[in-house]
């Protein structure tokens, strides 16, 4: 186990496999938003807010599930958190150079426009999982995209050498690199903000495989 494994938490959409009511939405961009590089780039000043709807709406209706009517402070579009304005203000004080917070709107299943949300764009990913200590698929070759390899990782252990040389402000909150699932990690000094906000499952790195 790495010394950093105890310092970091994974910020993920809560599992809801056995719930029929009050499930969280799964944010999906509308057609115009989907064409934009918002997941890894800052859009020009004056751009319209990113627009998301509940991509699980039809699935929920089919299986008798009801989406939560009052959305929490943290929602998810894939692995990316979409956070409330109140949480944004707290994160802005951290001055994280690798994170941009872009205005977003979530239109819920009842047509309500929830406008005080911000999409967390990670301008770069931090590949800091230890290949010797992590549990990942070695039976299948990694997926190669743009000359980079992406692996299916089941249990992470963080690379001390990489994190020792990465300034703390660049690793307070980051998106994992070289992983097929680009999970978001938060340092213990920041993870509590997501816990208190609600809407996210916050899992200590050593417990991820057991809890998720």
What features would you describe in this structure?
The chain is 17% helix and 30% strand. It has 212 residues and is α+β, with helices and mostly antiparallel strands. It has one domain (8-126, 155-211). The strands form four sheets. Strands 2-3-6-7-5-4 form a six-stranded mixed beta sheet. Strands 12-13-1-14 form a four-stranded antiparallel beta sheet. The longest helix has 10 residues, at 188-197. The protein starts with 7 loop residues before the first strand and ends with a helix. The mean pLDDT is 95.
Overall helicity: 10-25%
Instruction: Give me the secondary-structure category.
Output: alpha+beta
- What is the typical, i.e. mean, pLDDT? 95
Strand content: 25-35%
Report how far apart the termini are: 19 Å
- Tally of contiguous helical segments: 6
Identify the overall geometry.
Answer: globular
Largest sheet report: 6 strands, mixed
SSE topology string? EEHEHEEHEEEEEEHEEHEH
């Amino acid at each position: 186990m790495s010394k950093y494994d105890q310092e970091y938490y994974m910020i993920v959409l809560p599992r809801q496999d056995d719930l029929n009511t009050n499930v969280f939405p799964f944010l999906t961009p509308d057609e115009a938003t989907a064409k934009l590089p918002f997941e890894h780039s800052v859009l020009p000043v004056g751009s319209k807010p990113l627009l998301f709807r509940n991509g699980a709406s039809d699935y929920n209706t089919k299986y008798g599930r009801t989406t939560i009517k009052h959305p929490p402070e943290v929602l998810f579009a894939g692995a990316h958190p979409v956070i409330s304005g109140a949480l944004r203000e707290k994160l802005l004080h951290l001055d994280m150079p690798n994170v941009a917070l872009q205005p977003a709107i979530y239109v819920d299943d009842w047509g309500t426009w929830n406008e005080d949300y911000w999409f967390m764009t990670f301008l770069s990913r931090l590949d800091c999982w230890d290949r010797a200590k992590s549990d990942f698929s070695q039976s299948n070759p990694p997926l190669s995209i743009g000359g980079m390899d992406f692996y299916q990782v089941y249990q992470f252990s963080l690379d001390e050498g990489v994190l020792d040389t990465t300034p703390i402000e660049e690793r307070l909150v980051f998106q994992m690199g070289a992983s097929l699932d680009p999970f978001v990690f938060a340092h213990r000094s920041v993870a509590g903000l997501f816990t208190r906000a609600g809407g996210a499952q916050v899992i200590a790195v050593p417990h991820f495989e057991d809890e998720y």
